[in-house]
Amino acid sequence: MTTSTDRPQPTSAVRTHVLSMLGFSVVALWLGAIASGPSLDRWAQRKSDGTPRAIASSVVAPAVVSARRSGLFALRERIGRLVFDEALPDFHEGDPPAISAAPERATPERPSRPRETSADGGTTATSDERRHDARRPLRVWVAGDSMAYNLGLQLERLARRSGVMRVALDAQPSTGLIDRGDVRWLDRLRTSLEQRRPHVFVLSFGANDADVLRHRGVVYGPGRPEWREGYRERARAVMELVGAQRPVYWLGMPVMRSPTYAQKISVMNEVFRDEAARVTGVRFVDTTARFAAPDGSYSAYLADASGQLKLVRMEDGIHYTPEGGRWLATHVFELLCERFIVGGRCQ
What we know:
alpha/beta, 2 domains, five-stranded parallel sheet
């Protein structure tokens, strides 16, 4: 009769091997979740309001935060752009019609007379612009760096509910108006104009541009007059390309937590504001006051209309949280509805 003491016992080497395999599996699963963090975040944000979205957001939050901090998502995006030839996103519903020999007029008519434009991008609309409805939805192209991400997701949710608007989001992390070799925004925006034919553009740049740039063969750092001039030329080139064919809403950058970084962002906002005032078809939307404390300083928490504090900025002191994205998206949505939707309202 075989006793328990006679049975073969797992050796230390076997136990170590099993534990190593389990540890490897856990690490692999975690890295996979991190690499898919933004996709998981998009899935969570598309859940219905209330408990379903709160639970989904809580579950994926660790992976989303880790994805942003580790840089794995930016690496994945670069590889994807190389493998898939920088494939453009598409509208969430109602693809644009195929381009024919005589395509439909996709751009709302712009009256020859000037119109008043407020600091937040608002304007006095004309009747010929307010011609989009559920039968002919307004196609909105949201593009830019990672600051456009939560804005675009929330604007897409508002558009889906309205039934009169379609949104495509082209947020490319670690990119900007200063070319870094993997994404050249002039080329990408030109392609989106030709292939997707949006009615209006919402653009957000600057988060990654507080860096050196080459201007007329010489490299300059932020703060130099030559840097400002070189950056102005880059912003103007994008505005003139898109603004000549479609209305553009150019979003300014919000106040930042780091004083040094905030100063650089302030210079970019001045460039954006000045150039938008000069280029036909471009409206500058100031976000500074909307995301600042009453004294104008940075604050991660801001009070909503009911007085409740909401977390609107991420831990890095730069990006919008989903709630912050919703705040900005609601404002942009109202501007678009007022100008382009029949009756000047989406609901």
